[in-house]
Amino acid sequence: MNRLTDKIAFVTGGSRGIGAGIVRRLAAEGADVAFTYTHAAAQAEALVTELASTGRRAMAIRADSGDTVAIRAAVADTVAQFGRIDVLVNNAGLFITGTVDDAGADLAAFDRQLAVNVAGVAATVRAAVPFMEEGGRIISIGSTGGSRAPFPGIADYVATKAAVAAYTRGWARDLGPKGITVNVIQPGNIDTEMNPATSDFAPAQAAGTALGRYGRVEEIAATVAFLASAEASYITGATINVDGGQSA
């Protein structure tokens, strides 16, 4: 299906993992895509080349989502190249753990996680909204941790994801009169380089789902594509778990 023909998408953290899967799916649906990356330059350029070979316009922009100046510049570069933004996907994020009573905790790392996972998302939305028209879509990638804390040491991370879910509900109210929808997808365990289904703890994680397996990047990307389409025009302010029944 080409549900996004002639649409312009902007994806943060799009060079690998879930982000790259989202970029590929949006392009397959007909969108031209700009995406940010921080370190994976070779992967980012390879993805641009791959999409160009399918006839889609693509642009990779080096921008740290924890740097509000850089993310505003990335949005401006996208608009300069493509003219507008129809679909915004906030995917960039960090996963840093540590218990609150750990005297040796790396507090700077926790601050960095907050900057990327919360402040960076807010900055990206604020930068993009002026260039979005009626029918625009804002989709954030959260985590099932936004609704639960499954093990010790995860408080700082899940707090950032809960904040994104709360922002989503508030932004849906703010932007509803403009015809822009805002939703958050909360993935469970997804098979990526950072969380492979072949790791030592993966069997226990998979056993905690109703389906008994890890999810695939393509399954998150498919949900993004649906929410980005006209078919999802009456869905806003929603938190959608894509977790194989982990939260059931």
Account of the protein in words:
The protein is built from 7 helices and 7 strands. The chain has helices at residues 17-28, 41-52, 68-82, 107-128, 155-175, 202-207, 217-228; strands spanning 8-11, 32-37, 58-62, 87-90, 137-141, 181-187, 239-242. Strands 3-2-1-4-5-6-7 form a 7-stranded parallel beta sheet, sandwiched between helices. It holds the Pfam family adh_short_C2. Keywords: Oxidoreductase. GO terms for molecular function: oxidoreductase activity. Residues 7-193 form the Ketoreductase domain.
Question: What is the overall shape?
Answer: globular
Order of helices and strands: EHEHEHEHEHEHHE
**What kind of sheet is the major sheet?**
7 strands, parallel
The CATH topology comes to Rossmann fold
Number of helical elements: 7
Rounded to the nearest angstrom, the distance between the terminal CA atoms is 31 Å
Task: Indicate the percent of residues in helices.
Answer: 40-55%
Low-confidence region ranges: none
Specify Rg, calculated over alpha carbons.
Answer: 17 Å
Count of distinct strands:
7
| Total domain modules | 1
Share in β-strands: 5-15%
Fourth-tier CATH superfamily name: NAD(P)-binding Rossmann-like Domain
Which CATH class?
Answer: Alpha Beta
Order of neighbouring strands in the sheet with most strands: 3-2-1-4-5-6-7
Write the CATH architecture name: 3-Layer(aba) Sandwich
Structural class label:
alpha/beta
Mean of pLDDT: 97
